[in-house]
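seq/struct pair 1
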Amino acid sequence: MSFALNALTSASKSQLSLFSNRSALWLLSNPLVARRFKSSGKPSKRARTLHNGNSIGVHRTQKHRPSTFAYKWSRNAVIERPELHLSLDDHIGIVRYFEENVEHWSKQKVLHSRLESFGIPTESIHPLLQLFVSEVLSGNLSNNDSYDKYTLDRFARSTPEDLPQTYADIVYTGIFYAWAADPASQDAVERTIGPATLLSIQRLFHAARLEHPADDFLEARRTRRKIIMHVGPTNSGKTHHALRALAAAPTGVYAGPLRLLAHEIWERLNLGQIVPAGVEQDVMPASLPIDSALDVDVTAADTTPAVLSQGNTKFARACNMITGEEHKIVDPEAALESATVEMLSMTKKYDLAVIDEIQMIADVGRGYAWTSAVLGINAKEVHLCGEETAVPIVQALLAETHDELEVRRYKRLTPLQIDKSLDKDLSKVQKGDCVVAFSRSSIFWLKNSIEKATGMKCAVVYGKLPPEIRSGQADLFNDPNSGYDVIVGSDAIGMGLNLKIRRIVFEAVSKFDGEVLRPLSISQTKQIAGRAGRYGMLQEQCGLATTFLPEDLPFVEQALAKPFAPLPAAILGPSYNSCRDIARALPPSASLRTIYDAHVYVAKTKPHYRYSSSNIDKAADTVDEYSDQLSLEDRITFLLAPVPWREPDCVEVLYKLLKNYAEDLSVGVTDLFQGTQFLETLLIVEKKMSTLPLPKSDTKTLSILELFHKLLGLYAWLAFRNPVAYYEPELVEEWKPRVERALHWALQGVTRHSKGTRKTVESPLPVAAVARKVEFRTAGDLRKQRKAEALSNKKTWANSGPVHA
């Protein structure tokens, strides 16, 4: 694979080339439906292969590090991610980059293919691009007026996660369409390509244009909101005041990135475990529960705990939970709600809203939901909690809305220090350690090896585990009497699980990005390392971070010493309306991929916005197979649903789901899973659970159960949006707890414990979860109640006799 240039020497540029010929494929999330989960799976052979190719000005450093698998070290190349080293303050450098590379960009085959898919005739593409290149090289598009008009500073707003050739392609294409549709260019463009083609370009440009996204949220624009940002590192207690304000608000909503967090807030509000603002005395003298996922430790300025380990009934508030897969209704008239960010209502009026993990506003997969929340939440007072990196971008967004902004900054309650490396010796793992790895095989190998080397049992946490199981594993680790003294996990520990960790141990400092191994970013490293320091809660003097390999220690030390870089842009996501408008401006045969690409490559926005992007090739191609039978709205819904498109084990179920909906507009969960390995595996595990004295399982069984849980979540997600077509959500509610119990049991049986491991009593479900049960009704319960009431009313009406005038 070839990589794009950065602003380095012209000598290096003369030897190397700019863009690869691979098409940039995107997933663009929709603000009107909940998130499309990024799928994962085994990379293809092509993706695992690092193609040799030239690049322009990219500093490619290959670092060889050993894999820990069974101590049989292999040489895995870690590739430094190339970056566009351009600064917003360096206008001259940006213009030089723009002008020196435009000609190479214009010759890329992938660009020509994309422009053709956007409706420009093949014979018009080359002459139009030549005209554009000529205008750029003449300086007409980079003078003082044009610099801002065409937002050239976008070239300096890439992130470390962006591939430069893809990002530069997006910026160039956007400038190209803005220039071609500009009335000032009309005469020259029309002479080159003709009026019909020019009209199609203008129609697409205006259909995709979104320069004032805040104007779409009319309810929020009717009042001047007060925005309070609580920013600081992990374990700084930054969420403390926000949650106390929520508990005291007449009406309010909490919105976080994970169902796990939404569930915890829901539970604690209902149990009276969050102390309302204004209550400073006579609270129960207890602090954060052992399994809390909240960053709400008592701050120096406020000695009243935000969260009590034992509830106080006088603080209890009725709160409902709303996530993409699950609704828990305590009281239909409850004044408080807890939700995932994607499920926020932008029309409902609140007194107060808390938006957690605000730095996710720049996340390419889900950031659109945070952008919508900041611009559109209809609340008098809004609390934004997260990293310092988000402050500049929030300031830019609120400059458009004219809301009041107050920034409150917090420091870590305990310092973070670098500890001596383990030097490849797992016997040096200690009680309270969290060992972080970035593949499931490494996680289970580490679990087994640590248990053999130390005699301590290890809990495990990784991304594919359902939130309920992750929470259960966290409970085991946090409970000093469980016997689980160490936790092994992926970067999933970085959000939603504030664990009682004494020391973070990085097994590796690189992770697979879908194509090659890349070093962790500064933000990723800080987020993971920052989880250390809550081992003894406030009694701990510091948190520790170290590495398994001594050669990795300088990387962690340097990353922690570097400041956070401000987020470059807030992510936007297409809506159903924008997809409809763009589809009308494209050729009639336009695919889903083309519709989404038009948002990314054509849309004109302000520099501090950009459309979200990720890989949608498998998803779009699969859904488009049924394009003749599905409406555009249905196709978009399937594309954005939490579908594990890249999991081979799910293919049969996914095709059956699409086929049944396309042909019958009806999908039953029983028919969907009947005869599949998912239901069969569940039944086998349940039989073993009832007959075997100790858990015994394998990673394949665990993987099938994980996917089963995800597919059940998919059905629930679809059922909330179309309950007529997906008519068995109640069965999903019955099956999910069964799968979770089987997963918990299988997870215990994946590795064999060594003789030195302490024996503990295994629990089929986390005890804390049972002890904190809150009475609620599900969406299915409410549907049944409404049906029963309707039937009762019908019978009453039928028995009342004829009505006489």
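seq/struct pair 2
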Amino acid sequence: MIIQERLETIVKESLEEFVAYLRKGPSTHGYDAILAYDRLRANRLLLQEYIDRFDSGQYFAPLTFTTVITPATTWERLVDHVLDKPRLSFERASITHSRADLKMRISGGKQLTLSRPAGSKYKQITRVREADGLDGPDLHVRIELDSSPGTVSEAGKVFIDLKKAQDFYLRFADTGEENRAGGDRYKKIFDGWDDAQKILVLNEMKITKEDFLQPEKFIVRTHASPDSRVRNSTKNGGGAVIIPVTMRDSDNSEAGLPDNDENMHYLLPSPDENASNPYTMNLLLGNKFLIKRLVTRGLEKVENQSDAFEAKYIGGEDNTFVTGIQATKGKLIIPLKGATENVKTIDFTNGLALGFVATGDDKFTRFEVKAGDDSLNFEWFGQGTCPVSLERMNGTWKKGEVNYIWEYKASYQFHVETAGNDIGQLTLKLAATPTMRHKMVPDEKLRMVGDGPGFLSQFIDFGELKILENIRSTIDTIVSVAEDIDAFRLNGLLFRSGKESAQPSAVRFPGDLTLPGYLSPARTEFEFETPEPLVLAGLKHQFRITPAPVGAVTWTAANLPGEETEDYGSINPQTGEYTAPALGSLVRGDKRVIVTATSGKSFTKALVSITRRSLGVSPMVMQAAADGKYLLTAATIDRSPVEFSLPADSYGYFSDDPEADPSGQQQSKYYHLPKCKCTCSCPNGKQHVFAGKLVKDEGGKDKWVCKVEGDNDDNCQCEVKPLPGFELERVSDLPRKSQQWLQRHQQWLDSGTQTDWPWEDDISEVLRVETIRVTSSSLGETVETPVLIPIENQTHWFKHDVEPGVAGGEDGLRLTFQSSDKEGEYDVPAEDTTWYRVYGNAKFEDGVLTPVSIDGKPLTPYTVIAAIEYDRRSWLWTYAILPVPLIKPQVLVDTLYGPDDEENGKEAAQ
């Protein structure tokens, strides 16, 4: 179940206020870039992309293993547990406690609770569960993001390292301690994998040396929005996901985020103070990284460099902006020849020299790129002297030198395409017409008279034009690099849709470059009310999306990749009413279907699980011991509430589950089996049912007392009722037959009756069965869970063996009734054994269970068998839960006779 959090409209600062903040100084905290996303919409998009790539393949192989709950006493055995693909989401926001949740649903498999009764040689099954898409637990792996950095490998694989993932939690047992033990068992499996397997691959990004942005390392944090930090704020828990990025070949050793939310400026403003649609995405490119990268990569593309360009930063000390770059080395020597109407040949013999820095007595030449006022400003001043050869029209030549000088200023502003095929494309565009002053002066040799009209003036015009053209082309080459920035490609660090997930709205350059916009509005504008619903095979389900879009919605359904030939049901394209495929057409136990709702250019998907049952209850059978507390879960296909009920004469009672998730698929209660039950009715109308307590009175005698919990009203009327079999603490492991039973049996003997002794009278003396009923009123269904309550201690045990081929090739199970006395272990003779079928309809004769129905009804998934050895004074007995055909007899035998400390099993390889 995906926990859907309400997407609230939070009043944030306007874009202009945010830009004013950015003008104060660098805001990327030493990183080359920072990405920011609205956390709830990021989670929504992650779920959509999870559905996009969901297929029928398994991320993990089925897992079979044992978790030791209490050494030598209690175990949980998981058989063929199937986990679906992990889905990532980010938890409530805080920089100091940034966490992500990696959830894997257990959609198949069986779970057996094992215990060893006192004095027994073998383990015994005390509870049976079956997981499926309707009623299966979730494995949660909580990732402390400050210890799980992200990396982009040389091959372009984007991943988060999970080696330090610590908190594994599997809610599969009765107590938090047991659930943590189950999670720890999964962690041991995880720890046994190679390091290469302990990574969560987010995406694949092909990176080349030519790319402007080459991310290498990143971290992920969550950040609370300003108003969510206010105590009792209704908006608590929204916030942003932020991703600081380090590029290849960058030294960000001094980088680091603030240590609390208050010292980190919130990076998601609104378009203006009245906007109802605050930005849900922003990208900051660091001032120092951007300017250096832009200018140096631009000059790398400039041809005809005789001295390679080198530069120094202007500013940037003490956490201030880099205000520009100033050339410290570099010169262009441009080959230049040409002609005019009156000059046959113009040849700059050694090329046209355009220097970036002053040399010798030159104090004028300089090249600077300055950042300020949302602009990138180029200033290139210079002077030079070059030899020139000029050919007259008659073929004669004259040679000399020219002196030239130039001043060029151009201001550019960043622009981003917000629509069309080039959406997201960054460019630098001229903010105003460049200013250019330049002059070329020939020496005396070239100025000699006699060359005819226009000869010298045309040459000067030609030279001055070439100076202007080459300066402009050099600057144009540098600024064209902005088109290579491909900023929104960085979205691929988290989202597979990469730059397609961005809808930019603006670009500003007050120091750092900011690109606010919207995170994949086509995918996050609306969503299914239930993005991962369960639908019963053959039945209908009405899909709905929220918030309702303005335009019409079109609905479609489709199979997963690889299952194209299977029946996926049908859907009304106008109404969204879906009809699941019939039960008989299902070829797999975990059929999934993808339903898509489309309105205009926006769409959202749901991952539908087709189930074979509409009401699931776990466990399907269990043993309860006095003073025990046991978790029950139930799930309905329509998420409707269920009622847990017990018979009026029940030994047990229910209490609420304090860890229940009200938005989850499962509903839960705890079943308690006290030794004494107190029922209290209070004047305020409250009813209390809880456990009593055995205490000593003033005379030292045992007595049962009630204490009303949670109510101080002394007028409550309470009835204390010790439960049969639990009246006193047992002082012997040998259960004696009650005086009542002995009297009944003697009366039967004395009567001389010809009728058989009612053996059910015997089993009721040692084993009580009470039934928990779980009812869904909306579905009109009830599921029953038998609770087996041993009233007397077990003295014997069963030895389990596979009985080959007893049912058309299917194996059965043989039980051997055993115990021990002062001479050692023995098999109880058949003539002294009475067998009891407590539950189930499988064939059972002479100790052999055959997986064949005896009443023509569907075979029950388990059978409960008990046996009593005849004895005049004592109850000598045992019982067994036999989950056949739910699991194979051989698997059952292997489970019961596995080592006490078994931790190994069929473990997953990624």
